[in-house]
Backbone:
């Protein structure tokens, strides 16, 4: 390929169109992958979130079980005190001491009732959390299956296209090196401003590729002469004649078949 200083306008147009064909092929590969990488990422985040939720719920259940154990211990202690006070009542010297011990017994009985109520409430909380854990595990299983399926899809596509994409990106960089910086900047600016990434297009049926605006015959003649770089006044795309486009497409197809 001629150096940047020696390149004719025709050589520049061919190089730009070749670069466009390479970059369009990369776009096709990425379109095949589509939203899959993002879907996989979202599913991975969801699975992680569900696992974190299950872990937290399990920790909550452990904490509540600890509270239940504490309340059961409190009940046993209260029963021990009631027994102790009942024994002491047998040896009291007056009614005042008897009534004082009776109040202590009553207090411990209330403590037992409250603790039993707490245990009942705690057990209800555990049952509720276990239901949520079961539902979350079911959801997790579904999401993990879906993630595995989507990862399989993505891995299969990557296995088919990763090598080709890498080789094409290397070719794209090589072709960029052979084109003057001013044109590369213009090419990238146009490419970023159009939906389909087509910055260099051939004339098709008297209009620029992908457009319905007819190009005047005189301009078509100028494009075919390959003496200057001409852009479409409506889309801003760089225009090449159909014959040049056909030649470069055939050339690049051979290149793609070897990658």
Residues:
């Amino acid at each position: 390929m001629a150096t940047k200083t020696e390149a004719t306008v025709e050589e520049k147009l061919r190089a730009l169109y070749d670069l466009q064909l390479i970059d369009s092929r990369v776009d096709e590969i990425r379109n095949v992958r589509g939203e899959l990488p993002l879907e996989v990422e979202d599913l991975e985040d969801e699975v992680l979130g569900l696992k974190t939720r299950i872990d937290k719920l399990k920790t909550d259940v452990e904490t509540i079980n600890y509270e239940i154990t504490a309340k059961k211990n409190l009940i046993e202690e209260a029963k021990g005190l009631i027994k102790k006070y009942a024994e002491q009542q047998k040896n009291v010297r007056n009614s005042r001491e008897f009534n004082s011990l009776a109040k202590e017994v009553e207090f411990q009985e209330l403590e037992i009732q409250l603790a039993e109520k707490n245990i009942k409430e705690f057990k209800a909380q555990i049952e509720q959390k276990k239901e949520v854990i079961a539902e979350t595990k079911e959801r997790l299983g579904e999401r993990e299956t879906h993630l595995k399926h989507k990862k399989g899809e993505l891995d299969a596509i990557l296995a088919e296209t990763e090598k080709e994409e890498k080789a094409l990106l290397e070719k794209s960089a090589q072709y960029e090196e052979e084109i003057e910086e001013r044109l590369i900047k213009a090419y990238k600016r146009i490419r970023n401003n159009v939906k389909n990434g087509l910055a260099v297009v051939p004339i098709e049926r008297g209009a620029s590729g992908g457009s319905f605006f007819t190009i005047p015959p005189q301009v078509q003649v100028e494009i075919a002469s390959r003496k200057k770089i001409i852009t479409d006044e409506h889309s801003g795309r760089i225009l090449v004649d159909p014959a040049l486009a056909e030649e470069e497409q055939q050339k690049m197809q051979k290149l793609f078949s070897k990658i």
In short: The first strand starts at residue 200 and ends at 204. The mean pLDDT is 93.
